[in-house]
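JOB MANIFEST
job_type = single_chain_structure
chain_count = 1
residues = 103
[input]
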Amino acid sequence: MKRWSRAAALALLLVGAGCSEGAKLIQESDSGGVVTYPFKGENGYLFSRFRTEALEMIEKRCKGAYRIVREGEAIGRSRVVDTPGGSEVIGERRWGLQFRCKQ
């Protein structure tokens, strides 16, 4: 493999890895919203590093006081990652937190 093609393959791999999203506010209203974050495994939603990010996002949005109304697995997504060996489809599971800000 030529030097430039190795560099291009590495760049593609890094770009593909950077496409993974952390916590994301997907629904917002005056009184609350829904935040989702990726997780792996059966109990992974509790131990995902993105759970802390999601809770911080909620706290910032509500300026402190909030209540989790409901939580559960949300619709995930699949994405294609190109690697030097070919393409791979990666399924991503997401956990959702519906929250309401306390007034």
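[summary]
The chain has one domain: 3-101.
The helical segments are 3-18, 44-47, 49-62.
exit_status = 0
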